[in-house]
Amino acid sequence: MKHKAVAILEDLIRIQSVNPHYGEGAQGEMELSRYIERFCRDAGLLVSRQPVFDGRDNLIIELKTGHPDSVLLFEAHMDTVSLGSMPNPLEPVCVDGKLYGRGACDTKGSLAAMMYAMAECAKHPEQLQSDLVLCAVVDEEHAYRGVLKFLESDMPVSAAVVGEPTELRIVVAHKGCVRFAVTTQGKAAHSSVPHEGENAIVAMAEVVGYFADVIAPRLENKADALCGAATLSIGTIRGGRQINIVPDLCTIEVDRRIIPGETPQHVLEEIRSELAGWCRERGIRFMIEPLLLDWALNTPADDPIVTTAGAAAARLGLSPEPRGETYGSDASKLQGLKGIPTIVFGPGSIAQAHSAEEWVAVKDVERAAAFYMELARSYRKERRRDDKREWNV
């Protein structure tokens, strides 16, 4: 018999929820949110909507168990990347134990398992030591504005689990990023008299060389034990208007991945300061514009959410060891902005996310559902030893 979490996942895959950032034909998350709302209300859960954009709402689903001083949050995003070249992306197909479909891995598999766990826990709330919240958010695949809107609600949360493909491993640390644009400024002139102008592309070639030959290699020595080294990648370049005009502007977009211990604001200012000094020596005029600043995740291995998750995983025959990842997630916003101890856990591998053959192992969806239930039933916010008040370690 098909596991209920897998049946839910198949329903989620059938509903197109491509982030509008990915262009024409993207339908956003509203239809998917309606399905989730119906499912959760039928399970006896409290459901409220939190508008983020016009026609795009977060869903906040609550199971109150009489423990408002200990609240465990499950969070997963509803949006996907574009359908791309994936054949029949909205038709769930199971082959050799793998369920194919857009979002199957990233991250409707996690969402389906969380929905199942919430519904099962609602049948016996007396077995829980914490209140539960499931937040299904919008816009993770673009600018994280769904989780940022949720944090504006100031809902008291003791700890959180973010659903992303981690191969059923407990991720406690991952990289953040600093994305920025650099524009070199020149002076336009006719290409027949190039000496009367200043070529912004030529200036940018020097800047690119500086990033590639000086900054990037230096980052190899800046590493985290779980996440690896900080990195820098130049992703786009644009310059010039036509072949017979000396270009007056050229722009690159840069992705600098940060590691635990670094802050995005400090990294950006460091880059700005170093580049300013280097360009000044060479007479290069430039501007730098931040595009996206995101924190790294760094939850201590001895935090109660980590130790409880490890114990739950061990009971289910899964790896209890905390690990790190190179990609980012909503988890870093929960920790970075509100200090919420957070782990990332879910079925699937990041190697299948966004791919032309996105899939998740059916067995892993079932195991994720069991893990979320086990964690929900065993997590309890720690007490201080010297008084009766609750606190976050």
Distance between the amino and carboxyl termini: 42 Å
DSSP strand content:
25-35%
The helix content, as a percent range, equals 25-40%
Work out the count of structural domains: 2
Radius of gyration equals: 23 Å
Q: Topology of this protein?
A:
Layout: H1 4-14, H2 30-42, E1 46-53, E2 56-63, E3 71-77, E4 93-95, E5 98-100, H3 104-123, E6 131-137, H4 145-152, E7 159-162, E8 170-174, E9 176-185, E10 189-190, H5 200-219, E11 223-224, E12 228-229, E13 231-239, E14 245-246, E15 249-258, H6 264-282, E16 285-294, E17 297-298, H7 304-315, E18 322-325, H8 331-338, E19 342-344, E20 359-361, H9 362-378
Parallel strand pairs: 3-6, 3-7, 7-19, 8-18
Antiparallel strand pairs: 1-2, 2-6, 4-5, 5-20, 8-17, 9-15, 9-16, 10-14, 11-12, 13-15
Helix pairs in contact: 1-3, 3-9, 7-9
Any key phrases for this structure?
6-stranded mixed sheet; Alpha-Beta Plaits; Aminopeptidase; alpha+beta; 393 residues; 9 helices; 2 domains; 4-stranded antiparallel sheet; single chain; disordered C terminus
Task: Explain the overall architecture.
This protein is α+β, with helices and mostly antiparallel strands. It folds into two domains: 4-174 and 296-378, Aminopeptidase; 176-294, Alpha-Beta Plaits, CATH 3.30.70. Helices cover 33% and strands 26% of the residues. The chain has helices spanning 4-14, 30-42, 104-123, 145-152, 200-219, 264-282, 304-315, 331-338, 362-378, and strands spanning 46-53, 56-63, 71-77, 93-95, 98-100, 131-137, 159-162, 170-174, 176-185, 189-190, 223-224, 228-229, 231-239, 245-246, 249-258, 285-294, 297-298, 322-325, 342-344, 359-361. It has a six-stranded mixed beta sheet with strand order 1-2-6-3-7-19, sandwiched between helices. The protein has a four-stranded antiparallel beta sheet with strand order 13-15-9-16, covered by helices on one side. A three-stranded antiparallel beta sheet has the order 4-5-20. Strand 11 (223-224) and strand 12 form a beta hairpin. Helix 3 packs across helix 9. The longest helix is centred in the N-terminal third of the chain and has 20 residues, at 104-123. It is elongated and about 80 Å long. Residues 384-393 have low confidence and may be disordered.
